Amino acid sequence: MTSDPADLTTADYLDGAREMTAADRPYLAHLLAEEAAQRTADPATAAGIRASFPDPTIRKD
User: What angle do CA 10, 5, 12 make, to 5 degrees?
Assistant: First the structure.
């Protein structure tokens, strides 16, 4: 892993999001996934990333 955040890739952020999901840290997973989505050029792929890691603070009534 690199110490410079500018060197992180989309895959690095997605790996981190998966790790945070496994550690029961959904908000951190969401933040990491959002960064991955922003670094993704394809809008459909970005939407898929966002759907996989939804914001846990949004209520779904």
Answer: 30
pLDDT digits (tens, 9 = 90+) for 23-57: 999 999 999 999 999 999 999 999 999 999 999 98
Alpha carbon separation from 50 to 2, 4, 37, 44 (Å, rounded) = 24, 24, 7, 10
In angstroms, rounded to a whole number, what is the distance separating the alpha carbons of residues 61 and 49? 22
Could you tell me the maximum CA-CA distance found in the chain, to the nearest angstrom? 41
Cβ neighbours around 36 below 10 Å, total: 25
- Cα–Cα distance between 7 and 4 in angstroms, integer? 6
Structure tokens at 7: 């060197």
